[in-house]
Prior knowledge:
This protein is α/β, with parallel strands linked by helices. It has two domains: 2-53; 55-188, no CATH class. It is built from seven helices and eight strands; from the N terminus they run ββββββαααβαβααα. The strands form two sheets. Strands 1, 2, 3, 4 and 5 form a five-stranded mixed beta sheet that branches. A three-stranded parallel beta sheet has the order 6-7-8. The longest helix is centred in the middle third of the chain and has 17 residues, at 96-112. The relative contact order is 0.11. The structure holds zinc ion (ZN).
Amino acid sequence: MILQNISILYGNNLKFIEKTNVLISNGKFQKISSKIKPTKQKVVNCNGLLLIPGLINSHTHLGDSIAKDIALDKDPDAKINPIFGIKQKILKETEPRELIHYMRKTVKSMLKKGTTTFVDFREGGLDGVLLMQKALSNTPIRSIILGRIEYYQSKEQIKRNTPIPQSYQNQIDILNIISQKNRSKETRQSHNHIKTR
Ligand SMILES: [Zn+2]
């Protein structure tokens, strides 16, 4: 396929290239040049369009897809407090397969809008992370899932810097391993410094 007359934000410095042609074959960008001549391949006129690198959404809550935009008139605590918020209630009372269905819908929507990578702050402990991995299987999107344990401190505890109980600390290690196990070796190496909280 050839994309004709397309402008590009190219490379690490997002250099602007105005109106050029792009050759795509075997699902990959092969060549960028205004000299690419149309052959028998499919040609798409992209006049007025801009080609950009895949976007990274560094803070998602994919697992909550079913409960987005709930109770818009309520204060944040009533909506998303991890203990008594409405969102939490909806998530607890929804079948896992329904949660997966809505997560996959969100992934489709992200890909359509150009998001190719995301970092998720997953709730629901180990089960939450595993459920998301299931939802993401066979999808081309890249992910880093940061698991969250079901333990929350009060403002006072945070001020006093109270340590997390040992039993929860063990869970953190498990989540860290699980959330990274499906990544490529290079991705794992580059993300090894990320602590799961
Ligand atoms: Zn958040």
